[in-house]
Specification:
single chain, about 650 residues, alpha+beta, Alpha-Beta Plaits, 3 domains, about 10% strand
């Protein structure tokens, strides 16, 4: 239950070595850079970007390169998006390359720029075709209703004497509209056409120029405005034919362009590599630009785990002689990052703590203490040996097939280990895919003796609560707060134990147990009443606070009762498994083919039961740690250690032979 010891690292070197030293820090990846507070008036400090005028220009070049590369990546995704399953998305889903391959592909910046120019050309060509297609389709939609007209579109504008307008009259009011126009302008000529659109009737209105305004006024009163046709050659029918031919050619051209674009997909890994390599260079330049510096030297400060300092100093000083590396313990007002440091067997269970939050520096890491409880609670909640075997095998296969890192890797390792807990509990309770094989329990069956299972759940919960109180007691002793350890944690042991013995003795009719419990409870309660109000000088407030502190007993009892969820979850998975088995076995009465639906129901039913109960077991086992256990001693507020390293977006760099 350790938190790695952190050191504040300061590195001073000549300005000329800045690029190389920052590259070494990125390669080593053990220092979290911290912005240094400087006093420029007193020490003539400035930012390295002011000393190295080329930094800003290089940052702009790298930023422009990243923009081009991101355009290529987005362009590729339009034609073939890389599909990732849920597990790959959770684990990161990057492409794994050996370091030498990554350096080789990532250095091909000029080739990547050529790919960008080709992607940009194809994108512009496709955009041009898309815009033209949209324009032609718009023209087509405007002309299709007037396909019956045998008048060239250019002649529909009329002349000084004759006005020609095109309208669409609502079908329901066609006769009324025609009558109104005729009544208002008897000399107007209206010629209806045919249209596939049933709601409107296309009409050409021809009148003298002096009557045009009067006709338009009548129609505008009904919100009918003249139709404006696009400028095209020939009749509407001729124009529609031309549009159809051009749309067909556009489809062919777009198909050819898309094939050319798909031909560039073979460059995707190269573009990924160049992007990440340029991104790493940009990160180095961004860090360099913010480093405090004088005209001759620059400074980098950050945090590093104590056990990594020798490797850090060796890596830097092996390449640069004029480098000074200094490390010190954190000051009281500083907040170093947190790294959990546990044995390999406990490390997977760090995922439980990392999901909850990091402990404050200098406090306790709960991972080691939580491990055995999470292990057994998960096994009790799922409670089936067959499910445990499947869970472990699936998690191990995923870990082998999919490269994972960080919390995701720890979580799947933890699930593989917890599968063994399910096998253990399932063997003890006789649950192998429910009652499918009829294997007798080694100890008892929760379905036959649920009260015993409930008692075991309460007993394990009580042990974990005692351990939680003990963790806080240990922390206070380690901090030198012996009085707080005895009064605030130590006195709860006799009081809580005595109370439980008193209840148990009464329930079991054991006077001796009740007597022992009574005196333990009296001793503990008396000590709590006397000590819990010690912060008050007034004797009445002191005793009142002490008496009120006994109310915390209800919280402890509530915590113990919360462990009954282990019984409920275990019974749920067992009962569902038995129901699935019963439904499946009924099909055996069908001769010859009954085994087919039986197997289908067994597979589907047990996979469903396993899936929902694995989630429930994880959630409730975690909840017991977070609320009933961590609440006794855990002090959050720590921040996760985030070193300056090779943070890539698309490529995961691995050792030779691991890709």
């Amino acid at each position: 239950m350790a938190i790695a010891k952190m050191k504040k690292v300061s590195l001073v070197a000549p300005v000329s070595c800045a690029d190389g030293i920052i590259r070494v820090l990125q390669d080593v990846g053990v220092v979290e850079i911290e912005q240094t507070e400087i006093e420029p008036e007193e020490y003539s400090w400035c930012q390295l970007a002011e000393v190295r005028e080329d930094l800003g220009k290089k940052q702009e070049e790298l930023s422009r390169a990243l923009t081009e590369l991101k355009f290529c990546i987005d362009f590729f995704d339009r034609f073939e998006r890389i599909k990732k399953n849920m597990i790959e998305q959770f684990a990161g889903g990057k492409v794994y390359l050996a370091n030498s391959t990554f350096d080789d592909l990532g250095s091909r910046v000029e080739e990547a720029h050529t790919v960008y120019e080709e992607c940009r050309r194809l994108d512009e060509e496709l955009s041009t075709r898309s815009n033209e297609e949209a324009r032609l389709l718009d023209n087509y939609n405007q002309l299709i209703s007037w396909e019956w007209l045998d008048i060239p579109v250019s002649e529909l504008a009329g002349n000084n004497r004759i006005s020609i307008d095109l309208y669409k009259f609502p079908s329901r009011f066609y006769e009324d509209i025609v009558s109104e126009v005729k009544e208002s302008c008897p000399r107007a000529y209206l010629a209806p056409g045919q249209s596939s659109e049933s709601r409107h009737i296309p009409v050409i209105v021809i009148c003298l120029s002096e009557d045009r305004d009067e006709v338009r006024q009548v129609l505008s009163a009904r919100s009918i405005l003249p139709e404006l046709l696009p400028e095209v050659q020939g009749t509407p029918k001729d124009a529609i034919g031309t549009i159809d031919q051009r749309l067909s050619r556009i489809d062919q051209e777009v198909t050819e362009l898309k094939e050319q674009a798909k031909g560039l997909l073979k460059e995707r890994i190269k573009i990924y590599s160049v992007y990440d390599r340029v991104s790493l260079a940009f990160d180095r330049k961004a860090l360099a630009a913010e480093c405090p510096a004088t005209r001759t030297a620059f400074l980098i400060e950050g945090w590093a785990p104590e056990d990594t300092l020798p490797a850090l100093e060796k890596a830097v000083q092996s390449e640069y002689d004029l480098v000074h590396v200094e490390a010190r313990d954190p000051f009281e007002n500083e907040n170093p990052p947190v790294i959990l440091d546990n044995p390999a067997s406990v490390e997977p269970f760090e995922a439980v703590t990392e999901v909850y939050g990091m402990p404050r520096p200098g406090t306790l890491d709960p991972s080691f203490a939580a491990m055995p409880f999470f292990f057994i609670f998960f096994g009790m909640a799922l409670g089936d040996a067959g499910y445990g075997v499947i869970l472990s095998v699936v998690c191990l296969l995923l870990l082998r097939k999919i490269k994972m890192a960080g919390t995701a890797k720890k979580l799947f390792k933890m699930m593989a280990i917890c599968g063994a807990a399910c096998v253990l509990v399932g063997a003890v309770t006789g649950s192998w895919f429910g009652d499918l094989f009829g294997i007798a329990p080694i100890w008892f069956s929760p379905l036959d003796n649920p009260l015993l299972m409930l008692g075991v759940s309460f007993a394990l919960g009580l042990v974990q609560i005692y351990v939680g109180i003990g963790m806080k007691l240990y922390y206070n002793i380690r901090q030198g707060n012996l009085k707080e350890a005895i009064f605030d944690q130590g006195l709860w042991y006799p009081f809580l134990t005595g109370f439980l013995l008193l209840l148990g003795g009464s329930a079991l009719g054991n006077p001796a147990m009740s007597e022992v419990g009574k005196w333990l409870a009296i001793i503990g309660a008396g000590g709590l009443i006397v000590t819990q109000g010690r912060a008050h000088k007034n004797i009445i407030k002191r005793l009142g606070t002490g008496i009120l502190s006994l109310y915390d007993l209800t919280g402890y009892v509530s915590d113990i009762l919360s462990y009954s969820r282990l019984l409920a979850l275990g019974l749920a998975s067992s009962v569902i498994a038995m129901v699935v088995n019963d439904m499946a076995k009924r099909f055996l009465s069908i001769r010859f083919v009954g085994w087919i639906p039986m197997l289908m129901i067994l597979v589907i039913g047990h996979v469903f039961n396993l899936a929902i109960n694995v989630i429930g077991s994880y959630v409730h086992s975690s909840r017991l740690q977070y609320v009933e256990f961590y609440g006794k001693f855990f002090e959050g507020g720590g921040r996760r250690f985030r070193p300056f390293n090779k943070k890539t977006k698309y490529i995961e760099i691995v050792e030779e032979g691991e890709a």
